Amino acid sequence: MSEKNETQVAVFEEIRKNTDIATQEQLSVPMSLVFGHGTVGDIASFGGNTLLENTKKVDVALQNVGELQNIWNHSHSQWDWKHINLSYHSPYKNMRQIAGEISAKKAALNEAKWKHVKTEVKIKKLEEKLSDPNIEYWDEVDIKIKLAQKKEQLAEGMSYIEGAMKDVLALNDMYEQLKSKVSGFSEADFEKEESKNHLKRSLVQCIRDMRQSGTITKGEQEYLEQVGVNPSKIIMLLRDYLKSEIETDSWDTTMLFNFVDKLVDELIDDHGVDVTRMKLMGFDTDFNDEYSYGNKIALLPDV
User: Fold this and answer.
1) pTM: predicted TM-score of the whole model, two decimal places
2) 78-123 tens-digit pLDDT
3) DSSP annotation string for the chain
């Protein structure tokens, strides 16, 4: 083989000969092994270095920064989940949010699971081909390159899989914690709480509107009406509440939660605004148990 041809196939020869790259379980082929060899390794690059010198620096940098993925390889921090993503005033709505998030994570993990299995099978098939003592030189090169790529993809994919696992475990913890607020409920129980769930959300959004502009937006007025509440009366109540909110010595949101919970209980339990709304619309106010899952979930452990 000529000197020129030897240079061109140097990277393939490195992979072919390097048994560690071909066989190790956790693998990352260095950038310098690819971009620093063959026909381009000695070309001038940035900083007065050759491409080989710069790719070696990149390998070191990627390894150094790579440890960050151990922390930031998932969707949200536990703080984000609790303060931002699960910030409904209704624990039922937070339960529903957890259910949705878990469903998405489960789907992602299932997809990754079967992709992992298929990749493992491909790796085994490639390894079997390599065991043939009569394998041709270029066939061996092709197979080992494919094998190296598959194993690197497998190793890199684990970071995202572990990130999804972190989210699932964190959400499971929060699910257990939420049982202190709401537990042992069925789909019918959730349906019966929906008027309060939506009214709480609407009121909180109305309060934000009032803080910003002194009135409630058209969209929030419609939301209140959909629950069955008179928006004009809410505007008057919120003006008084905001005056008290400004005058309070407290810096936390306890006052907000107490005000919303008390007002919602009064409007739904005492005035039955949601029931009146359904009657005006011509709908039955009763929930039909035949179309729901009747078993109780989110049960507390027996003490």
Assistant:
1) 0.83
2) 999 999 999 999 999 999 999 999 999 999 999 999 999 999 999 9
3) --HHHHHHTHHHHHHHH-HHHHH-SS----HHHHHTSTTSTTSB-GGG-BHHHHHHHHHHHHHHHHGGGGTS-SS--HHHIIIIIT--SSHHHHHHHHHHHHHHHHHHHHHHHHHHHHHHHHHHHHHHHHT-TT--HHHHHHHHHHHHHHHHHHHHHHHHHHHHHHHHHHHHHHHHHHTTTS-SB-HHHHHHHHHHHHHHHHHHHHHHHHHHHSS--HHHHHHHHHHT--HHHHHHHHHHHHHHHHH-S--SSHHHHHHHHHHHHIIIIIS-HHHHHHHHHT---S--GGGS--S-BSPPPP-
